[in-house]
Amino acid sequence: MPKTAIVPPGTGKPLAPYVPGILADGILYVSGTLPLDAEAQVVHHGDAAAQTRHVLETIKGVVETAGGTLDDITFNHIFLKDWADYAAINGVYAEYFPGEKPARYCIQCGLVKPEALVEIASVAHLGTATGA
């Protein structure tokens, strides 16, 4: 099965051996996305809402590079460091998915960067989009 790596312009070096997204048969798999800058440093320390916004903007960039929109996202995997941030994360999440919501799950866990409060991975169905 042919697959295409999706790497938006300006993407920093990943923390591990992965790419931001893979497009295969019209389905885009977006890697777990942390609130990182181009130098792989966590941004917006202590602010779960700002970190969530950063993560969703990064995911939006991957989806748009592949030829889609956030409306194409069908499933999100949400990982949060502390349940105390759940409301803040959901507040921002609702801004990015105002209409019909994707399916999702949310779990509390440790994240690869201790300063990160949220990580999100997504699946989008783009149909015949081919990516950039």
Question: What topology does this entry show?
Answer:
Layout: E1 3-6, E2 21-24, E3 27-33, H1 48-65, E4 73-80, H2 86-96, E5 103-108, E6 118-125
Parallel strand pairs: 4-5
Antiparallel strand pairs: 1-2, 2-3, 3-6, 4-6
Q: Can you give a write-up of this model?
A:
It is globular, with a radius of gyration of 14 Å. The chain contains two helices and six strands. It starts with a strand and ends in a 7-residue tail after the last strand. β4 (73-80), α2 (86-96) and β5 form a beta-alpha-beta unit. It has one domain: 2-Layer Sandwich (60s Ribosomal Protein L30, Chain: A). Strands 1-2-3-6-4-5 form a six-stranded mixed beta sheet, covered by helices on one side. α1 (48-65) packs parallel to α2. With 132 residues, the chain is an alpha+beta fold.
